[in-house]
């Protein structure tokens, strides 16, 4: 609104008023301020030129109360009208916020303030006011609320709550929503120090209060602590990690605390469990005196080991604890085992994962047998980063194992003698008897021999065994069937999936396969010069299936009138002992037998695989 210049003023005063008017106009434009007057009696409205720009209006727009109301946002219009009407009726000042819609459709926020002054006419009044465009401020407030909401969301996700404490008023505090959740508080009301202290666990209260007060008195600007609280909502004990900055005035007195708290109950519980496990592990290791642990920083080539590992290798424990090059430990390996140990270790470093090294160690106290196991971790580029593991002194175990093997060998020798003695007694007893008795004695001796062969095969450290890869189904069958295929190799074929075998299963298989082979040699595919026997094995689910198939022998016309022992009692005994099933098919081409054995009745636990040294 232009300044009205009185007619009776000199040029200097006019120039001064003009400059004031220009400054006012400049200030109004810069601040988005509109000045206006409204005479309710006449309906006359005047406002400054800045109003046209603030409201986005053309200069020919006619200012009036009704035209002004038409600019107000429809959702705010009635409220604005009532506020003005009440102010006019009671001659009270106006202070309100509302939105306007410009002719271009922009929505702007306006703060309007006005007071009543005497009018030019007698008894009349003028309403003089200013409107301020606060749209930018409102947008800033909106963005600030969004950021506050995002911050609260992040705090909720991270389990972090913040607080503000006025240290000049006995610790009056205000909290975020996440803080309320952590402490189990239902509403955000101002609290004092006594309220916070009351939630601290009694066992931690004195320590935490002392630490807090010492921080305030020492001039510190940052304090932190971990302590327990008793949550207000349910009485649960929770661990809290707290950190805060302390603001101080010009004299150094604490004035304000701004802090954050996080619920670390799960972490502390995991640390309690870990510490307990570590203590139990150390107790077990200390009790054993045989197991040592180690960790190898591969890039730095530093091996840090405990005293037990160092003692096993004959190295000073104090030196080993600080870390030594790996070559120092490898140098203690027996020369005959060192190359194999280094190759397995190199393979582990190349591929990563778990590995084992069984070797001898030369120490000042003599030679020791050691089993070293570890796990090699690789970095993102595939290079060895860290290897950790344990070493077990198995010297005494090896000694006992060798003693056991000697005893087992002696026992096996005596069992073989018993088998031979029983077979000789059977032959001697049948010598003067009928041909049927002598035939029975001969079959009996062969069964004894089959059992003896299977028993010898199952013994560790056996000599002359045809199978050298371990005690397995195929290895056992190869040993048992070798005598039946000596004249013309290739008539008996073994195919399929092999499996490690238990002692009990080996005994039953020895009896059954011996009977099948004997009958094949007498009556079946092995009784002529062209027949063949194919034996296949493999797992089907949780069962091992062994199939015996003959072809090329004498043609069959059904089940023989006089079946061999292998198709009778031995089959029944084998299935009863192993919990399996057996089926015979006497078709025209030759006998077919299918034996199914549960995996847990057949399979011996496989030995630990050795590390690849390729």
Question: How are the elements arranged and paired?
Answer:
Blueprint: H1 11-31, E1 33-39, E2 44-47, H2 50-54, H3 65-71, H4 74-90, E3 94-101, E4 107-118, E5 125-133, H5 135-158, E6 160-166, E7 172-175, H6 177-183, H7 193-199, H8 202-217, E8 222-230, E9 237-248, E10 254-263, H9 265-288, E11 291-297, E12 302-305, H10 307-312, H11 317-322, H12 326-330, H13 335-351, E13 353-363, E14 366-378, E15 384-393, H14 395-430, H15 435-457, H16 473-481, E16 492-496, H17 503-522, E17 532-540, E18 543-551, H18 569-578, E19 581-587, E20 590-598, H19 599-602
Parallel strand pairs: 16-17
Antiparallel strand pairs: 1-2, 1-5, 3-4, 4-5, 6-7, 6-10, 8-9, 9-10, 11-12, 11-15, 13-14, 14-15, 17-18, 18-20, 19-20
Helix pairs in contact: 14-15, 15-17, 16-17, 17-18
Question: TL;DR?
Answer:
The protein has 614 residues and is α+β, with helices and mostly antiparallel strands.
What keywords describe this structure?
614 residues, alpha+beta, 5-stranded antiparallel beta sheet, 19 helices, 43% helix, elongated, disordered N terminus, disordered C terminus
Rounded to an integer, what's the Rg over CA atoms? 50 Å
Class by alpha and beta content: alpha+beta
Q: What are the low-pLDDT stretches, counting only 5+ consecutive residues below 50?
A: 1-5, 461-469, 606-614
**Helical percent range?**
40-55%
Number of helices: 19
Give the overall pLDDT as a whole number. Answer: 79
Describe the main β-sheet briefly.
5 strands, antiparallel
Strand content: 25-35%
> How many beta strands in the DSSP annotation?
20
Strand order within the widest sheet?
2-1-5-4-3
Query: What does the overall shape look like?
Result: elongated
What is the straight-line distance between the termini?
A: 96 Å
């Amino acid at each position: 609104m232009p300044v009205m210049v009185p007619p009776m003023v000199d040029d200097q005063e006019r120039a001064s008023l003009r400059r004031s008017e220009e400054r006012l106009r400049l200030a109004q434009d810069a601040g988005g301020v509109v000045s206006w007057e409204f005479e309710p009696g006449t309906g006359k409205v005047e406002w400054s030129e800045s109003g046209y720009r603030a409201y986005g209006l053309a200069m020919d727009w006619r200012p009036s109360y009704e035209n002004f109301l038409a600019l107000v946002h429809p959702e705010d219009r009635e409220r604005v009208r009532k506020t003005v009407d009440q102010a006019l009726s009671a001659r009270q000042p106006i202070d309100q916020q509302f939105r306007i819609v410009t002719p271009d459709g922009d929505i702007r926020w306006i703060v309007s303030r006005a007071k009543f002054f005497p009018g030019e006419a007698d008894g009349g009044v003028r309403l003089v006011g200013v409107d301020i465009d606060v749209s930018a401020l409102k947008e800033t407030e909106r963005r600030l609320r969004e950021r506050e909401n995002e911050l609260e969301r992040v705090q909720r996700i991270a389990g972090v709550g913040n607080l503000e404490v006025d240290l000049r008023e006995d610790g009056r505090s205000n909290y975020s929503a996440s803080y309320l959740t952590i402490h189990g508080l239902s509403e955000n009301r101002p609290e004092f120090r006594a309220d916070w202290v009351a939630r601290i666990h009694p066992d931690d209260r004195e320590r935490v209060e002392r630490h807090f007060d010492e921080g305030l008195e020492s001039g510190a600007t940052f304090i932190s602590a971990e302590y327990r609280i008793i949550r207000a909502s349910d009485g649960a004990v929770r661990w809290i990690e707290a950190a805060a900055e302390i603001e101080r005035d010009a004299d150094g007195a604490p004035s304000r605390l701004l802090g954050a708290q996080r619920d670390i109950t799960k972490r502390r519980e995991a640390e309690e469990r870990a510490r307990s496990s570590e203590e139990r592990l150390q107790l077990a290791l200390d009790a054993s005196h045989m197991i040592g642990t180690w960790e190898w920083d591969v890039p730095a080539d530093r091996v840090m080991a405990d005293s037990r590992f160092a003692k096993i290798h004959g190295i000073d424990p104090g030196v080993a604890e600080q870390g030594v090059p790996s070559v120092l430990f490898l140098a203690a390996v027996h020369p005959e085992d060192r190359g194999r140990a280094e190759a397995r270790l190199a393979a582990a470093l190349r591929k990563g994962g778990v590995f084992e090294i069984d070797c001898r160690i030369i120490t000042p106290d003599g030679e020791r047998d050691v089993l070293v196991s570890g796990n090699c971790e690789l970095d993102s580029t595939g290079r060895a980063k860290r290897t950790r593991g344990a070493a077990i002194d198995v010297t005494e175990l090896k000694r006992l194992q060798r003693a056991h093997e000697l005893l087992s060998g002696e026992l096996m020798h005596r069992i073989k003698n018993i088998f031979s003695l029983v077979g000789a007694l059977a032959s001697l007893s049948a010598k003067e008897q009928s041909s049927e008795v002598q035939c029975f004695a001969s079959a009996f001796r062969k069964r004894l021999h089959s059992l003896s062969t299977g028993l010898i095969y199952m013994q560790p450290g056996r000599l002359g065994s045809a199978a050298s890869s371990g005690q397995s189904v195929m290895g056992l069958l190869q040993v048992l069937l070798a005598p039946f295929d000596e004249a013309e190799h290739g008539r008996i074929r073994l195919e399929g999936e092999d499996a490690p075998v238990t002692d009990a299963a080996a005994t039953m298989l020895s009896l059954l396969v011996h009977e099948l082979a004997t009958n094949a040699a007498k009556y079946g595919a092995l009784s002529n010069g062209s027949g063949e026997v194919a034996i296949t094995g493999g797992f089907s689910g949780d069962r091992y299936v062994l199939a015996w198939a003959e072809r090329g022998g004498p043609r069959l016309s059904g089940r023989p009138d006089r079946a061999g022992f292998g198709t009778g009692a031995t089959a029944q005994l084998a299935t009863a002992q192993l919990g399996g099933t057996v089926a015979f098919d006497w078709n025209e081409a030759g006998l077919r037998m299918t034996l199914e054995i549960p995996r847990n009745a057949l399979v011996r636990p496989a030995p630990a695989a050795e590390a690849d040294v390729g």
